[in-house]
Amino acid sequence: MLKEAASYSVANNKTVRLVQITDPHLFADPDAQLLGVNTAHSLEAVLNTLNATASPADVMLVTGDISQDYTDKSYHNFIEAIKPIGLPCHYLPGNHDDLRLMNLHMQGDNVHGHKCIYIGQWQILMLNTTVKGSPGGIMPDTECEFIERAIATASDKHVLLAMHHNPIFVGCLWLDNHWMKNGDEFLAWVSNFPQIKGLLWGHVHQTIEETYQGHFGNIKLMATPSTCIQFKPKSDYFALDALQPGYRLLDLNADGSILTNVYRVPGEHFSPDKDAGGY
Ligand SMILES: [Fe+2]
């Protein structure tokens, strides 16, 4: 088993259920707003919706941009917010995070920074695509080497790759300037591994569900709404969407298939400042 691996046992052939939340953009000040949305309140509403509607998940993944203000307190606020959910939570960094602060302050009984999670017939790899000082990302060689090693170590497991940056263009010109800049090469490389069944990310604050045709079959590509503000799909310029914050559930089946859906907070409680010109 790899160093830095977490392991969860599930009954043989049982489907693994994950919940993904992403891009909470929390502040130290719980009253602070991001473009008109109180990000602490919207995260709380997403978690309440999850609690009220979903059958229990096994693990929670949070795919970056936990903090908006690079403070210890923003990470502490996140840990306090997810406590009532009672799920083990695994995190990775986004471009708005400070990895050093994260590793120091994302500490809690149920909060983990492992890069590899073994669960049932699956291994989930938590990857770092951030580039210091840049909103855009890259998949570094060191992470590709890590993926290769992880697959060699447990070649009988299906693999889900989780990251912050989008490896494909999502059709928003302003946002696609900040994608994973070696996304094309990375996807072509990923398709050499029959074990890799899906890629999951945040960053784009909207739902994306596409399929990449790999050499060994289809690979699911998934992005998930933020727990705060939403970006308007297919917009060349920065624009916010009135859609409500949400989360994603993923059912990872023992045969390697993935069933997934996005769920949003009901009502219209979280309306961003539509005149906001930037992010
Ligand atoms: Fe974000």
Describe this protein's structure.
The protein has 279 residues and is of the alpha/beta class. α1 packs parallel to α2. It is 21% helix and 29% strand. It has six helices and 19 strands. It has a single domain (5-264), classed as 4-Layer Sandwich (Purple Acid Phosphatase, chain A, domain 2). β6 (89-91), α3 (99-105) and β7 (111-112) form a beta-alpha-beta unit. The chain is globular and about 50 Å long. The strands form five sheets. A seven-stranded mixed β-sheet has the order 1-8-9-12-13-15-14, with helices on one face. Strands 7-6-5-2-18-19 form a six-stranded mixed β-sheet, covered by helices on one side. Fe (ii) ion is lined by residues 23, 25, 65, 94, 96, 203, 205, 226.
Which helices and strands appear, and what pairs or packs with what?
Blueprint: E1 5-8, E2 16-21, E3 33-34, E4 37-38, H1 39-53, E5 59-62, H2 72-82, E6 89-91, H3 99-105, E7 111-112, E8 116-119, E9 122-126, E10 130-131, E11 134-137, H4 141-153, E12 158-162, H5 173-176, H6 183-190, E13 196-201, E14 208-214, E15 217-223, E16 230-231, E17 240-241, E18 246-252, E19 258-264
Parallel strand pairs: 1-8, 2-5, 5-6, 6-7, 9-12, 12-13, 13-15
Antiparallel strand pairs: 2-18, 3-4, 8-9, 10-11, 14-15, 16-17, 18-19
The structure holds fe (ii) ion (FE2).
Query: Roughly how many Å is the radius of gyration?
Result: 17 Å
Report the major sheet. 7 strands, mixed
Oligomer: single chain
The rough form would be described as globular
Strand order of the largest sheet: 1-8-9-12-13-15-14
Secondary-structure element string: EEEEHEHEHEEEEEHEHHEEEEEEE
Question: Averaging pLDDT over every residue, what do you get?
Answer: 94
Number of DSSP strand runs = 19
The number of domains: 1
CATH superfamily: Metallo-dependent phosphatases
Q: What is the CATH architecture term?
A: 4-Layer Sandwich
What bound compounds does this protein have?
fe (ii) ion
Strand content: 25-35%
